[in-house]
Amino acid sequence: MPTEIARATPGQSQALWMSTIAFTVCFAVWTIFAIIGVQIKKDLGLNETQFGLLVGTPILTGSLIRIFLGIWTDQYGGRRVYTVVMLAAALATFLLTYAQTYTQFLIAALGVGIAGGSFAVGIAYVSRWYPPEKQGTALGIFGAGNVGAAVTKFFAPFIMVAYGWQATAQVWAVGIALMGIVFWFTTKEDPVEMARRAKGERPRSAWLELDALKNVQVWRFSLYYFFAFGAFVALALWLPRYLIGVYGLDITTAGMIGAAYSVPASLFRAYGGHLSDKYGARRIMYWMFGVSVLITFILAYPPTTYTIQGIKGPIVFHMATGVVTFTALMFVLGFFMSLGKAAVYKHIPVYYPKNVGAVGGLVGMIGGLGGFILPIAFGVLNDLTGIWTSCFMLLFLIATVSLAWMHFAIRRMERESFEPQLEKLPQFPEMQPIHEEKHVGALAGHVLDEWKPEDAVFWDAKGKAIARRNLWISIPALLLAFAVWMVWSVVVAKLPAVGFKFSTDQLFWLAAMPGLSGATLRIFYSFMPPIFGGRLWTSISTWSLMIPAVGIGLAVQSTDTPYIIFLSLALLCGFGGGNFASSMANISFFFPKAEKGNALALNAGLGNLGVSVVQFVIPLVITAGVFGWLGGEPQAAGPTAKLWLQNAGFIWVPFIAISATLAWFGMNDIAAMKASFADQAVIFKRKHNWLMCWLYTGTFGSFIGYSAGFPLLAKTQFPDVDSLKFVFLGPLVGALSRSATGWLSDKYGGGRVTLWVFALMIAAVAGVLYFLGIKDQPYAFWGFFAMFMLLFFATGVGNASTFQMIPAIMRVEIPRLEPDLAAPARQKQAEMESAAIIGFTSAVAAYGAFFIPKSYGTSISLTGGPEMALWGFMGFYVTCVAITWWFYTRRGGLLYDIEHGTTLPPSAPRPPLATQPAE
Asked: At what angle do helices 78-95 and 165-186 cross, to 10 degrees?
């Protein structure tokens, strides 16, 4: 065993300390742009977003290569991989000094980032020298090499001021090259590698190294490290710029204060490892996230001047974080981040001793990506909001989500471990003296302990009525979710009319952000019903729609409302987008196989009508004081016109309350509803999962993206036409065509229908481009409108046909992929993987709600019109045609024989309904 070898082999201290020093040097090189980037920004005249990209590019390289370097370390040993990494980074850093243009600097920065990959190498190398009870301390000491960021911030400004940024880069390049040579001659191969070579064993394959990545906790640890390490790196890079911009400090002073943050965030990592060994990693992570949430909340509060109408007149006071207080808070934040970094990595060698490189590499990669993504996000938020503290607003959100996920995961584990004992307890402690066995479960609520939809007798007796009741309560809840998700698609078109001075690009950002957050939330929401129960989660997720609905109603009543508030509300509208995944997952458990497809079609199709409803209802309700004095005063939209734009949010409030209440009192939880992530994670190895993600993005991604962007696009391209009266027809056509044309796929095959759908979409986009080219003609709008109706119709048909393809594909593929399974097991495996692929593709495709509106905005910003984006969409549909034809519909394609009636998909004979096993 590796731990036994580690106990008996000398040289632990030498390996640890040389690895730590080497990592310190690597980290100093990795973060060099935090200092020299400030001067490069001035020399090239970069904006905030360009500066964020330049600073973050080395972090991108150093993050992405970590998983590969970790695998190679497991396979070939850390000593040789570590040395090669340092020498390669030295060469790239030296060549940096010859860069002249922004593009050349970005390319050079990619090479400098190799130094950041050293972390994955060092983690795997050091862990092999120590037993589990000492690995927390050892890896904490190694991780203290993060102090290299402080070394750069402390010394680099002085060298740069004296000799220029080129000399600074050259000194850092020589330093890491010398360190690589010294490391090679002062260290030995780790005990595990030496034992493997002595036995003449070949290295494990990369696939075996990656096998552990299917476990969900690996990805959860990655999120924790995204904050603990990624936010640390991001702040280490961003602080000099922040301090100069907010407090007007010079580069030398800003660098030294930045070092005051980096030092505790690095050196105390060793102490965090010791505390994790002594008190447990979980307790340390709770402290890290709890303190981080508090501090980032304080730092996120922007400088604000308040005026209070006092008894003797106005009382004015100002709230702001001074530079001394800021430095102290950053010191504390860095200290607890350092503890958290060590606590995360304490778990990896203990639970994955044979995959430390791969698992540590993945966690390190995601954490490092935080250091790349967050500086760019900081720059974008600065450009969008004009608020310096917006960076801490984002960090507060990440820390809060991480803390909540960790806590709920722990509580779930505890409940599962003690559930039998907990079920025997009374509902309240006051009932303990009179609690008897007959009372157990008497007040448990709407939980279905026995649910057998495949049993014909059970289904006809009571199952059908319960399932249909849950379905008909779920549909309006999902319709409201889609309505709230898409509310910005209409509201943004009216904001300029009531006095908001937002640019066209800012308006398209507002239309796009619900799509981004909604698609991301879908990934998580699909796992929620098994965790919380369908009834509870449907109620919670429906009530959550109140936040953006009420928020929009309040925000639009004053033109003084800052853009960041609108941006935040747009993100919160993503709650509605996430609801689709959890709603479909929940309803699928209630129905037998014979009725599951129709139930899901009704749930999805009628739920999609929410997009059309919102685009039909809002233009009507904003023209009248629907809520009277309770709804607030109207806004002027011209010399005589008035709008109650707040009704766009308020109109949904009573319906949300009714729907959420009905869900709580009328729906049920199924006790047997469970979903194993590890079982479903097999789909990530399936080629057709990724192909169907691409195709479903072309259909549903287009439907939801066009729904989000169509109103604003029509308004900006045809300003003389009151298009908001008609745009609701597009989503209506798409929703109805989805539910009304499923028979086409059943009769002719989903692959063939999908192929013709994409051909029709190419023709429709060409028509849109044609009518935009002649938009000055009087009939151009109606041609433009007709082409979009054709697009919406095609997307609806394609939504149904692509979902029909997935089960057919997996029924063909499973016998080949799992030849050892018996026929009934193959059928069950095919159904399980089909359901998982449907859920995953729906999450990926939902990003169309972000990318399509944003593509319009970017195209208009760069070229003055949306044509560039539309040409891009057409090119995407061409690839969809090629993929559908090549893989599925051509002679020899996977679905050709099935769809032409030559053969039937291989599967087990279907047993009678009454004897089919429940899913």
From this structure: 160
Distance, in Å, from the CA atom of 223 to the CA atom of 335, rounded to the nearest integer, reads 19
550 pLDDT higher than 50: yes
Angle formed by the axes of helices 12-30 and 148-163, nearest 10°: 40
DSSP letters, 623-689, are TS-TTGGGG---EE-SSS-EE-TTHHHHTTHHHHHHHHHHHHHH--EETT----HHHHGGGGG-HHH
Is the pLDDT at 914 greater than 50? The verdict is: no
pLDDT confidence of residue 4:
37
Q: How far apart are CA 703 and CA 161, in angstroms?
A: 55
Beta-bridged to residue 317, according to DSSP, are 306
Which token pair is 100?
């002249």
Could you report the per-residue pLDDT of 323-366, keeping only the tens digit for each? 888 888 988 888 888 888 878 877 777 777 766 666 766 777 77
Are the CB atoms for 687 and 595 separated by under 8 Å?
A: no
Residue pair 848/489 in contact (Cβ under 8 Å)? The answer is no
Give Rg (Cα) of the chain: 29
> Would you state the structure tokens that stand for residue 412, as one six-digit string?
């779930």
Pairwise CA distance, residues 31 & 145, whole Å: 12
How far is it, in rounded angstroms, from Cα 784 to Cα 256? 59
Provide mean pLDDT across the span 119-145. Answer: 77
The answer to whether the beta carbons of residues 262 and 444 sit under 8 Å apart is no
**String of DSSP letters for 425-492:** S-SSGGGGGG--GGGTTTT--SEES---TT-HHHIIIIIHHHHHHHHHHHHHHHHHHHHHHTTHHHHH
In this structure, the number of other CB atoms found within 10 A of the CB of residue 402 comes to 23
Given this model, what pLDDT does residue 292 score?
Answer: 92
Residues in the chain: 919
Q: What is the pLDDT of residues 478-528, one digit of tens each?
A: 999 988 988 877 788 788 888 888 887 788 778 778 877 887 787 777 667
pLDDT, tens digit (0-9, with 9 covering 90-100), for 176-201: 999 989 988 888 887 777 777 777 66
Beta bridge partners of 670: 448
Report the chain's terminal Cα–Cα distance, integer Å: 41
Give the three-state DSSP class for 715.
helix
